[in-house]
Amino acid sequence: MNGGEIQIGMIGCGVVGQGVVDLLANHRETIHHRIGAPLAIKHIAVKNPRKTRNGISPSQLSNDPQKVLTDPDIDIVVEVMGGIDPARGFVQSAIQQHKHVVTANKALIAEHGHELVASAQEQDVDLMFEAAVCGGIPILRMIRENLASDEFESIRGIVNGTSNYILTQMESQGWDFDRALKDAQKRGYAEADPALDVNGGDANHKLTILSTLAYKTLVSTDQIPTEGIEDITLEDIELGHRMGYHIKLLACADRGASGALSLRVQPTMIPLNHPLAEVPGVLNAVQIQGAVTGPIFISGEGAGGAPTASSIVSDIIDTSRSLLRGKPRRVAPWSVDQEHLNAVRIQGLENHHSKYFLRMHVEDKPGILAQIAQALGHYEVSIEQLYQRENAQAGNITVIIITRACRERQLQSALVQIEKLEGMGDAPKRLPIEPSPE
Ligand code: NDP
Ligand code: HSE
Hints:
- With 438 residues, this protein is α/β, with parallel strands linked by helices.
- It is built from 14 helices and 17 strands.
- The strands form 3 sheets. It has a 6-stranded parallel β-sheet with strand order 3-2-1-4-5-6, sandwiched between helices. A 6-stranded mixed β-sheet has the order 11-10-7-8-9-12.
- α1 crosses α12, α5 runs parallel beside α10 and α13 runs antiparallel to α14.
- Bound molecules: NADPH dihydro-nicotinamide-adenine-dinucleotide phosphate and L-homoserine (HSE).
């Protein structure tokens, strides 16, 4: 601290970083009042310091992160450059210089959170990452602090704003996938590598962090079966709607009766009147089933500069209050200790128990539906509803089947057989249906 002022250094000043600069300027008095001391941004490292940026003087900018990391006056480093390397080294270096760190980098925390949390504990500094999950929704603080006494039976979340925006625009405007993605990028919702948004990788990072926090066990990204929305078509969306569902990219964690944890990120059919089905556009939402608190539902903007900046600045305020009291680490980032690193068994997707939505393109010939039903029946998958309609392409039909609840492995075995049937078009598509039965 320099003359009673808390000094901030930033690495990165793109969509999120500019949001932080704007919020610190626009709510300066409120923030000063809530902390009890003023904040100042001393230095910002970016890739291109010649780019003009709102509210930042050229003298505050450079392309040298070391100016942030080694400046003894800087108390808090805000990492908003993204990616794993070199961000990992910068965050580690800030911690080793006894600086508190606030980051929005979910990829970094999901992959290397444990080592960074351990370093922060050793150096007695704060490592805060509220902005890494669900943009402006204070979901991590809620799990870590407000619900600290509870245990979580399940967590269901729409945690990626870009994919929710794409699915909503496809359904409500009839846009194709590429147009919707380009628009999400223009609005600053997407990752620098938007593949992470659409292939489920970003939602996987967020579920890794959420479940590590909620279940006191170290979850790794490769323990979460992950599917994205790249193959979802306008036809899937329209047929889903006809059968009474919206498609959402859902991140799910369930604690079974045996104590095992089941985790997955998948495009999922959700009944139209379910609260998660009604979350549009860039909004995110999380539904938690607490053993004591019961159901909790929270929703808000999950991506974009301003909502994400709100979470970052709340972490800056929390850290500043600790700094002023001389007592950092008021709340540990997560409560996984070395003895309980892998305390909870995580079970594979093959055991997932759900109803399923199946979409098939098949030749319109006698007996094909009977063969599909026979393959499903062979693996004890019952049909709850069947719908068929003719395609524009003569002689072809689209078949939709809603199954009764079965295990993923039963369905997969039946699909292997169905794919080989004569007259079957492209590979059948299957989407789980939520809520899944007990
Ligand atoms: P941007 O791509 O908009 O910004 C990245 C910033 O980092 C730019 O200012 C860039 O400089 C700077 N940068 C890149 N490489 C370096 C480097 N080697 N040294 C110094 N600066 C560098 O990303 P976002 O703001 O969208 O995202 C930042 C982080 O926030 C990511 O971790 C992302 O996952 C996370 N996040 C993003 C959200 C969003 O809605 N966009 C929401 C929640 C989290 P320059 O400006 O010169 O190009
Ligand atoms: N690309 C991310 C999303 C940013 O769309 O949700 C917020 O984490």
